[in-house]
Amino acid sequence: MRAALVTGAGRLELVDVGEPRPAPSCVVVEVRYCGVCGSDVAAYRTGHLLNPAVCGHEWTGTVRAVGPDVTGLREGDRVVVGVAPPCGRCPECTSGRSATCRVAFAMLLGRDPAAPPHGGFARAIAVDAGRVVKADPALTDEEAAQVEPTAIAFRAVRRSGVGLGDTAVVQGAGPIGLLTLQVARAAGAGTVVVVEPAESRRELALQLGAHVAVPPGEEAARAVLEVTGGVGADVVFECAGAAPLVQTAVDLTRRGGVMAMIGFVEGTATIDAGAWIGKDVRVVASLGFAHEDVASTMRLIADGRVRVTPLHTRTVGLEGLEAAFADLAGGRSADVKVLVDPSV
Hints:
Strand content: 15-25%
CATH superfamily of the largest domain: Medium-chain alcohol dehydrogenases, catalytic domain
Mean pLDDT: 96
CATH class of the largest domain: Alpha Beta
Number of domains: 2
Distance between the termini: 13 Å
Number of strands: 15
Shape: globular
Structural class: alpha/beta
Largest sheet: 7 strands, mixed
Order of helices and strands: EEEHEEHHEEHHEHEHEHEHEHEHEHE
Number of helices: 12
Helix content: 25-40%
C-alpha cells in the first residue's frame, strides 16, 4: 500500500508503507476521504516537517479491522478522526486540567507509541481506537471528511467566549475562517465581519452568513468601526496565520475585547505590546480540539447550522495530490477545500 507524505520543501512522495494491521488497542480504517489542511500545505511549502502521522489528519472512513482490546467499535462502523479522551493519569489530568491532557495531545501530534507511519493520504490507516468517533449517520462522507477542521473552529469559538449579539471579525476566509464565521453565528454573534483579500472567498463568506466581507487594510478598519459605532469588535478571530495580522487583529478589537488566534503563524510576529496593554485585550490561543467537541461539531453540521459542502471545491486521487499541493502552496489555486479520495 502507498501513502502520500511530504518529505521536503516542494516535495510530496508516494511511499510504500505496507498494509496496516491493528495493534491490540487500535483499529484499521479504510479511508473514504481525507482533507488537505493548511498545515499540510505549509509543510510542503517550507520543508518544516511535522511527524508523518500528521500529514493528512482530516479523514473519514469505515472500520475494517479491530484489535482484540477494542470495545465499542466493530467492522463496518463509519468513523471520523478525533482526539483521544483525556488519559486521567498524566500531571495535567491529575491536577484537574484534563482539557490539556499531554497523552491526548501527543496522539494529536503523532508522537504516541501507536502513531501510524503515515496519515490519511492512504487507502487505509491504523490508529488508536480512542482517536476515532462514530460518524453521525446524517452526515454524508463529504461532510464527515470536514468534521475535523470544523471541530478546530468549534473549540476556538467556545474558548473565545463570543456572546449573544457580539460583533465578531474573522481574518482570513480559508476553510478555518469560513467555518469559524459559521460557528460564531451559531454561538450567537450578532454581526460577523470577514476580512479577506480574494473576492471569490469574500463572496463565499457572504453566502455562508457573513454580514460584511471586505478586503484587508483601511477598508476593513473602516468597516469594523462603522458596524460597531466606533468601538471595535468584541472578538477578532485570526485565522489567516500571517505574522503581520497578529497586530492587526488587536487593532480591530475593542478595549476589553478578545483576540483569538487560530491560524498557525509561520515566523515571528511583531506586536505593539503597549497597545495590547492599553486596550486591556484578552488573547486566547486555540490549538486542536477535545474528544467531546466532535459530537457537538457533527450536530452543527447535521442540522445545517454549519454548511461544509460549499467549501469542497475539488476531489483528487493520490496521483494528482502533488499537483494540488503545488497549486495550493503557490497561492494560485481557486480551491477552498480539496478532498483526497485515496481509492482512485
